[in-house]
Amino acid sequence: MPVRHNPGTMPGARAATSGAPSRVLVALAAAVLALAPAACGAEPAAPPPAPGPSGAPGARSAPTSPTAAAPVDPAVACVDAVLGRLDTRGRAAQLVMAGVPADGLTEGGRAALAQGAGGVILTDAAGGEASATQVAATVREVQEAAEIPVIVAVDQEGGRVQDLAGDGFSRIPAAATQGRDVAGLRADAQDWAREMAGAGVTLDLAPVADVVDPALGEDNEPVGALDRGFGTDPQRVGRAVAAFVEGMEAGGVATTLKHFPGLGRVRENTDFADAADDVTGVDDPGLASFRAGIEAGAPVVMMSSAVYEKIDPDRRALFSRAVVTDLLRGRLGFTGVVTTDDVGAAAALADVPVGERAVRFVQAGGDQVLTVRPGDVSPMVAALAAEAADDPDFAGRLEESARRVLALKADRGVIGCEAPPTGR
Length: 424
Prior knowledge:
By secondary structure, the protein is α/β, with parallel strands linked by helices. It has a single domain (12-40, 75-417), classed as Alpha-Beta Barrel (TIM Barrel), CATH 3.20.20. The chain contains 13 helices and 15 strands. Keywords: Glycosidase, Hydrolase, Signal.
């Protein structure tokens, strides 16, 4: 089943849909849950008795034909087909997203794509002035060089964080300004998304769902000092987050909630220093904004690189199973793709070898490793593949994440599969 670019959406994203989770991702979540016991080495649970004619839970229904089979979702079958032809190294590569300048594919970017990188993030090497025409040309170069069509991401929050700001892209106000008009934000986000999708962008690494502690204000370096947050009230922030997610989706671009479980209570920016939060717990009111974004249909959540002392004092959030798996997936019920913040240049991770950053993240339950440095792809892929070769449980974890990344691609129209000819 050959993989192809979806001609209706490349460049650009899929047609606009509602904010509800897609059938591909819902079916994938069910498949992952069904496979989870086997991946952990446990015996699968026996199915509950089928209800009888009266609907009583203990009654048995009439036996069904042994040849009866549930219908196969073509999109899920496509993901299975692509996954099945990837070896361990290929699956590992699908988990890595590398930086590529928005104004043209570099040799470093080509090398990363030759390694099988599953995604790219367009960076503002042109000072943010790359035009929509230039970006579209870069995306075409990227997709032509890719082993498997890639997710194309960009940091397009607005204000001081807008990597695409050249001709053809609107100047987006800072989130602090966006949050003042929640009613109009959905329509604005839809317009911004259409511009991005027209240039081939698949995924926006926004919105910031962090709720800034009003006692910190601008002393909160990663969010408050840069006007990156929608406000200080979790419910109001949640409404703005949902409006942004729904508007982007209506315009054809997927969104990323960041930085889970929130950077609103730290002082330091993890891009430049270690950061710790000694307040946020598993029942924190500030998590409401992330819940709102998940309910609105955001398919990706980005992890914070800070330490949360009341949840896991010994590990940064992106390396913590207590945060990624137990809190985000367990308590908040998120079934989509979990990504890192940039782990290439982040000062907070300088003490962790490059390949080990990817391994620890996947061990914690994460899926997609983001680095702005394309040279990081090779050591990350090598480390992931080596760990999978040594540990069958990790190999299962790697497959689960590769499946999620491929399902996101299928859902966004990035990949498709040609149906076999009829009569065969």
